[in-house]
Every structure is written in C-alpha cells, then in structure tokens.
Write a structure and sequence with these properties.
This protein is an alpha+beta fold. About 40% of the residues lie in helices and about 25% in strands. The protein contains eleven helices and 17 strands. A nine-stranded mixed sheet has the order 8-7-16-10-15-14-13-12-11, sandwiched between helices. Strands 1, 2, 3, 4, 5, 6, 9 and 17 form an eight-stranded mixed sheet that branches.
C-alpha cells in the first residue's frame, strides 16, 4: 500500500529524487519553478511512500490551454520500473487525479529505456522492463502520444572510464577535429552569469542561421541563470583571440549531465570550436562525479530523411550508446473530448502561427 503526500520543500524533494537512478532534471524542484514562471505550468510534487520509504516521485504540471485543462509529468514519474506493484499504484493515483481535475489529458514521459542501439543493427538490444511498462500503459488504455515534447532517443556516453579511454573510443575524425581546434587557437573557458548576453547572442545567431525559433532573452535568463545559480547548470564558451565563437550549456542532476544548449558564431567555424567544446564538456562532467553524459537528442528515424541526421552524425563521432525511450503517453479521462482536442488544437496552433503569435 502506497501513501501519497505532497512535498512542498525544495531540499526534501531534490534529495529524494536524487536517490533514483533514473532521476531527471525535468523532475527537479527548479524545473517546476522555472516552468511555473515562464509558461504557467503549476507543479504538484507527489511522494509515494511505502513503510516510510519513498517508492516513487511525480512532479505533475497542470495548466489551462484555452478552455481546456491539461497535465504533464515531464521525464517522470521516477520509480523502479521493474516493480509492477508500484507502477500500478502510481498509475492508479495519477489517473484518478486527472479525472478529479477534469483534465483533457494527462501526459507522462518517463525516462525509461525501451531499447539501445540503432534499430535493425547488431547493437539493437531490447530492454525488457521498458517494453513491459509500455505494454502495461497500453493495456490500461493509455495512448502513445502524437505530441512528443521531449526527445525519445538520445546518445549516452559512459563517464566511468579514463580521459584517455574517452578519447580512444571516439571516431578518428572526431579526435582529429578536437586536436585541430586546439592547434587553430580555440580556447575554452567557463561561462558565468555575466556572460548571459553573450550566450544569448550566440544562440540567436545560430537560430537565424539554422532557421529555428527561439524565445526572448528573458526566458533564457530565467532558464540559464536560475540553474547556474543553483549549481545545476554550467556554461562553457569557446573563444578565438578573446572573441566568443561558440558555447555549450550543460545541466546536471544526480549523476547525469545533459547537453541542453549549443550555439556558434558564423565566424571561425572552420576552426572546429564545437568539437573542442564537447571534449571539455565531457571532462567537466566527469570531474563533477557524473556517471553519464547525455547528448540530448537523436533521430526518431535513423536515416538521412530525419531532420536531426546532421546533428546525429556530429554526436555519433563521440560514440556513446544510442538509447531509445518509450516516449510520451497520454491518459484521457474522457476519450471523446480527447479526440476533439487532438483534432482541433493543431488547427488552432497553425492559425496562431500564421498570425505571428508565439505558441507555448
């Protein structure tokens, strides 16, 4: 029998979350507060205890979208997914909560591996607990979501090896470009809160060059500054003769480090600053006691038709393990309303975009 209790203290929540091997920064206290301040998601942090010990945690965000109420558990809930009893109890409670709150949907996006390796290749290895949990969701009436807010697939580098071993396992081309960046005068330094304008300027340049939309400066000041001040984010800036030419912004929680943001100037790209930045990011994560470095994103379809293919080829040069997750799943208390929402809301979003409105 699980007892469900809200947690309203930052330290108590984060301390409990860190004990889970699949603890994700998107379930951290700080992430909930960040989304509350920037996009209106109201976090409810639930602890599921058994015999006085925390067996599961779920930071549940809730918000209004037009006339609708929706709920989302980003990269959660966190618990032992081999424990069928706990899984059933957690899902029972979350489904009941969605019904009580009149939500059109409740989305969960657990950081649960379903397979590793590239589909169809020799390293394609299924992970049975993740596949069984996906079957459990399907049997309970959950739907694989057409809206996947986070990357389903990524590449994870094991940091429990020496720096020499990290270098040796990279592709020869990647090692060559790291050395070339050093020889061509690229240096890397830590970024601080005083560098926020520089970080944003490089990010804006990258967005214009690569044709993707970014949010206003205030959003990233909240995202980067808050987590840097809490010791949960770290920036690295590559420079050529003192001028910033690229950056990465790393987030970390528990024993995982994520490469969330990267940017580069239009100048000096031939000096390969991004390769040296990733190498220094790996070294920094390892020095902080992290066991894993998550490159945060890999294609859904593993061929050149996927828009992430070019980024994927860059990341694959650092090797690591392609890791595929079960993705986001939706529970719909009222299926007809859910169908109406999923059919109508994309049209509303398209209309808002045509009118030039920012869509959250």
């Amino acid at each position: 029998m699980l007892t469900v209790t809200p947690i309203t203290d930052c330290a108590a929540w984060n301390d409990a979350l860190r004990r889970f091997p699949n603890a994700h920064i998107l379930q951290s206290w700080e992430w909930g507060e960040f989304k509350r301040a920037t996009t209106g998601w109201q976090p409810l942090r639930l602890a599921f205890t058994r015999d006085g010990a925390v067996a599961a945690l779920a930071s549940v965000g809730a918000r209004r979208v037009g006339p609708f109420s929706v709920m989302y558990v980003p990269k959660g809930p966190a618990f032992d997914y081999t424990d069928a009893e706990t899984a059933a109890a957690v899902l029972d409670h979350l489904e009941r909560l969605a019904r009580q709150r009149g939500a059109v949907w409740l989305k969960i996006d657990p950081d649960v591996i379903v397979s590793t390796g590239v589909p169809g290749e020799p390293d394609d290895i299924p992970y049975l607990p993740g596949q069984q949990f996906a079957q459990t969701l399907r049997a309970r009436g959950w739907r694989f979501s057409a809206d996947q807010p986070q990357f389903r697939n990524t590449i994870v580098i094991d940091l429990a090896v020496s720096e020499d071993e990290l270098l040796a396992q990279m592709s020869q081309n990647t090692r060559r470009k790291i050395r070339a960046a050093e020889k061509k005068g690229v240096t890397v330094r830590p970024g601080t809160l005083a560098d926020l304008d520089t970080l944003y300027a490089l990010y804006d340049t990258t967005a214009r060059r690569d044709s993707f939309i970014i949010r206003p400066l205030a959003y990233y000041q909240q995202a980067w500054a808050t987590f840097m001040a809490a010791g949960l984010a770290h920036a690295l800036i590559a420079e050529v003769e003192g001028a910033p030419v690229a950056h990465v912004i790393l987030f970390r929680f528990g024993r995982t480090c994520w490469y969330f943001y990267g940017a580069s100037a239009n100048e000096h790209r031939e000096r390969m600053p991004n390769y040296l930045l990733q190498w220094e990011a790996l070294r920094w994560a390892r020095s902080q006691g992290c066991a894993r470095y998550d490159l945060w994103g890999a294609p859904d379809v593993f061929d050149e038709s996927d828009p992430m293919w070019g980024v994927y080829e860059f990341k694959r040069g650092f090797r690591g393990t392609v890791t595929r997750h079960i993705g986001a799943w939706d529970y719909a208390p009222a299926p007809p309303l859910y169908r109406a929402y999923t059919q109508a809301w994309p049209r509303v979003l398209a209309w808002m975009k045509r009118r030039g409105q920012r869509v959250e």
